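Subject: Sanity check before I submit

Could someone independently write out the structure tokens for this chain? I want to compare against mine line by line before I put it in a report. The sequence has 101 residues.
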Amino acid sequence: MASYITIEDWKNVEDGYVVDVTIRRTEAETYPSGWDYGLHLGEVGGDTVLRYDNAHERTKGHERHTRDEVELIRFPGMLALYDRFKREVEEMTPVSWNWSE
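---
Independent answer below. Compare away.
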């Protein structure tokens, strides 16, 4: 069984929005990139506003979810993707999130 090392795992609710971040380093064969992640922005009540994940990396790749669509993306590396997610969340919400560095 492959091991996982948790890098980030937190959830915050502010002003009607939820940010849920999980980033784990892994050697599992199902994650060829070496990362298992979910970067989620949603509305309280359940609607997804934005999410990046690789839940099906081996078969589908890396995905960017919005309210209306799911698109495959090129994985730029974990730090670059996390920075992209943070920028987009800041643009989409009136909240000043307390991001870990």
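---
OP: Matches mine. For the report I'm noting this point. Residues 90 and 96 are 7 Å apart (CA to CA).
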